[in-house]
Design brief:
This protein is of the alpha+beta class. It folds into 3 domains: 170 residues, GAF domain (Beta-Lactamase); 106 residues, Beta-Lactamase (2-Layer Sandwich), CATH 3.30.450; 65 residues, Orthogonal Bundle (Arc Repressor Mutant, subunit A), CATH 1.10.10.10. It is built from 14 helices and 12 strands. The strands form 3 sheets. The protein has a 5-stranded antiparallel β-sheet with strand order 2-1-5-4-3, sandwiched between helices. A 5-stranded antiparallel β-sheet has the order 7-6-12-11-10. It has a two-stranded antiparallel ribbon with strand order 8-9. The relative contact order is 0.08.
């Protein structure tokens, strides 16, 4: 019976909705009629029952609102974790039975005693398991203490496991929110190209069914040649190909309307996947976006960074959008010497030595966040 009970307790660690049933089984095992997992603030005396069984909802509500301040369990924080403590050990029995908590909360429910044990302690209070006894069962006895001791280790471990899982899930949710904020499509894939996770921008690409599709859960490029290259690149990333390395490699893709896209394939080590919170079966990450520069909004951010004049910023954007000096001069309707003068000042202010360096500089300011 204890083995089966331990299994139910650890199931509750994975699914918190199972805690009331697990607590009920604990109650049966140790000889209690009701019980709960409660957190108690040692300063305010407030208590919060998180999971419970065998208690009338009305009494759960008034315990949280008022009566938790009156019960003697604040003294539990003075005891060691897993140590079984009865109510007479927390307060003199005569005094306790004359108090409001017993008269207004326990006695109306036919409860007479409780066996409690600390699960966790902090500077502010503690979390504890309490199993309540009724008049038919009588006061906490040696047999109940023995049985409580058998289950406390499992309950304490299960609570710790549950907290760890909640923390991990929160990190994964945060990670997913960050990815969803990018305007690049992000795909985590396994060795066979199966999609383990995709962000919002990636889902939009798949829904469009243009140059990327999901077929049988696998990421597939519409162009046969590009798909073959993509599959080989993912396989090389998974296998740790020296040409891929830790920086990844780019694969060109073309939409039906001729718009160029690029997929940057980045290998994921097992340690990296763990830190990122990505699905552990993912072995490579693909970042897919248009092969074009997207300026920050407003574009004056670059100008403010390098103290550029409006004319210099205009020429800088011309280098990116139009091309060389003759083309810029023709497009702007100015002399080539004027463009060259501004270009020289751009080199001096930014530290760039070539027009290609200026294009890279603008690329560094491109906006990766979704609009």
């Amino acid at each position: 019976m204890l083995t089966r009970l331990a299994g139910q307790i650890y199931d509750a660690a994975l699914d918190a909705a199972l805690w009331p049933e697990a607590l009920a089984r604990i109650g049966e095992f140790v000889g209690g009629r009701a019980g709960a997992i409660v957190t108690k603030d040692s300063v305010s005396k407030a208590g919060t029952p998180h999971f419970h069984f065998g208690l009338d909802p009305h009494y759960v509500e008034i315990y949280a609102k008022t009566h938790s301040h009156l019960d003697p369990t604040s003294g539990l924080s003075l005891f060691d974790a897993e140590q079984i403590v009865s109510l007479p050990e927390l307060a003199p029995d005569e005094e306790f039975r004359a108090g409001r908590f017993f008269r207004e909360w326990m006695q109306p429910q036919g409860l007479v005693d409780a066996a409690s044990a600390v699960l966790e302690k902090s500077a502010r209070g503690c979390a504890f398991l309490t199993i309540l006894r009724d008049e038919a069962s009588g006061m906490v006895d040696a047999e109940m203490r023995r049985r409580m001791a058998l289950v406390m280790l499992h309950v304490r471990r299960a609570v710790q496991i549950g907290k760890t899982l909640q923390c991990t899930q929160a990190k994964v949710a945060t990670f997913a929110d960050i990815l969803d904020g990018l305007n690049a499509g992000v795909f985590f894939v396994d060795t066979d190209g199966r999609i383990a996770h995709v962000n919002v921008a990636g889902k939009d690409m798949l829904s469009a069914g243009d140059f990327l599709r999901s077929i049988g859960g696998r990421l597939v490029a519409s162009d046969t040649k590009a798909n073959h290259t993509l599959r080989e690149t993912v396989a090389a990333a998974v296998g740790g190909d020296v040409e891929i390395g830790s920086k990844g490699i780019a694969v060109g893709l073309n939409a039906d309307d001729g718009e160029p896209y690029v997929a940057h394939v980045l290998p994921l080590s097992s340690a990296g996947r763990h830190r990122a919170g990505a699905d552990y079966r993912a072995t490579a990450a693909l970042f897919v976006r248009k092969a074009a520069l997207e300026y920050l909004s407003p574009p004056e951010v670059i100008g403010e960074t390098y103290n550029l004049t409006p004319a210099e910023l205009r020429v800088l954007r011309g280098i990116v959008d139009i091309g060389g000096v003759p083309e810029i001069a023709a497009a702007f309707g100015v002399a080539e010497t004027t463009v060259k003068t501004h270009l020289g000042r751009l080199f001096a202010k930014t530290g760039a030595g070539r027009q290609a360096d200026l294009v890279k500089l603008v690329a560094g300011f491109s906006n990766l966040l979704a609009a």
